[in-house]
Amino acid sequence: MKIAVVILNWNGRKLLEQFLPSIVKYSQEATIYVIDNASTDESIKYLKEYFPDIKLIKLDQNYGYAGGYNKGLKQIDADIYALVNSDIEVTANWLAPIIQTFENETETVVIQPKIKDFKNKKKFEYAGASGGYLDFFGYPYCDGRILFNVEEDIGQYEQKKNIFWASGACLFIKKNTFEKHNGFDESFFAHQEEIDLCWRIKHTGKQIKYQPKSIVYHLGGASLKHNNPFKTYLNFRNNLVMLLKNLPASHIAPVIFARLILDGLSGIAFLLQGKPKHTFAVLKAHFAFYKQIPTTIKQRPKNPIKKYYNRFSIFVK
């Protein structure tokens, strides 16, 4: 089984310097690639000087997370893609449990490792933790993280299990699955495209797993900081597009209507917090969503899965 560890980079020279050595050290079973989204810093110079054996794929512009991986992965021959953020530190033996799971479970096509916080290694990390789910309203959450509450890892999620979505910070996917579903939705650019892909995979009945024996540490916020209005825009727009694309037909009207109200309240909350740019980002996200409705409806699967949520409320644990 050929595995490719693929790092998407955009102006991440400092991150490569900090995190790439662990990937090189602990990924002997794999071929390592860096897809560069037309960086303007010294990323490429650094790679050629210090890691000449790493395979470099240079793109002509910044296509974001979705487009960058879609275009770069077409140039990689492997059975399994390990998509790894440039701010991920991996650990010894991180690949073996993943490879073993794929070999033993033919219906498993996506796997997420345990993702912990690089800054506080006792805790899970916000983006993925120990596997992702959606609540009834389509808000993403994880075992190990609900809203902004991140748990300490005390061994409570040590069992391999089915999950609804795997974090784009670090996920493994079979090449044939990625190609069958035409990769990520490039209209997303970045944020929640991995949830959309996982949901589309779920419609086919395949399994997505969390494998706690594989552990990585994520810095987080390296590309877009949490307080960046563009990140707010992407999260609100992409989530609505994802819902319209994947919800069972009977859920579309009530869920989208509820989200219009909830998102409006979020916009008001941003305003009260003195963050008018984020309020505008929410409004802009909704208008962009409305514009995409005709295209999004055409992307709906013929037989969407009926149940997409594990719990009715993100406030219930």
Task: Walk me through the structure.
The longest helix has 24 residues, at 249-272. Residues 312-317 have low confidence and may be disordered. The N and C termini lie far apart (38 Å). The radius of gyration is 19 Å and the shape is globular. The strands form 3 sheets. Strands 1, 2, 3, 4, 5, 6, 11, 12 and 13 form a 9-stranded mixed β-sheet that branches. It has a two-stranded antiparallel ribbon with strand order 7-8. It has 2 domains: 3-218, Alpha-Beta Complex (Spore Coat Polysaccharide Biosynthesis Protein SpsA, Chain A); 229-298, no CATH class. It has 9 helices and 13 strands. It is α/β, with parallel strands linked by helices and 317 residues long. Helix 1 runs parallel beside helix 2 and helix 7 runs antiparallel to helix 8 (249-272).
In a few lines, what is going on in this structure?
With 317 residues, the chain is an alpha/beta fold. 38% of the residues lie in helices and 21% in strands.
Summarize this structure as a short list of keywords or feature phrases:
317 residues, alpha/beta, 2 domains, nine-stranded mixed β-sheet, 9 helices, disordered C terminus
Class derived from helix and strand content? alpha/beta
| N-to-C order of helices and strands | EHEHEHEEHEEEEEEEHHEHHH
Mean residue pLDDT: 94
Name the helicity range.
25-40%
What integer value in Å does the Rg equal?
A: 19 Å
Which superfamily, in CATH terms, is the homologous superfamily of the largest domain? Spore Coat Polysaccharide Biosynthesis Protein SpsA, Chain A
Instruction: Note poorly predicted spans.
Output: 312-317
Task: Give a count of the beta strands, DSSP E runs of length 2 or more.
Answer: 13
| Total number of domains | 2
The CATH topology of the largest domain is given as Spore Coat Polysaccharide Biosynthesis Protein SpsA, Chain A
Q: Would you state the CATH class of the largest domain? A: Alpha Beta
Approximate shape: globular
Number of helices: 9
Q: What share of the residues does DSSP label as strand, in percent?
A: 15-25%
Query: Main sheet?
Result: 9 strands, mixed
CATH architecture of the largest domain: Alpha-Beta Complex
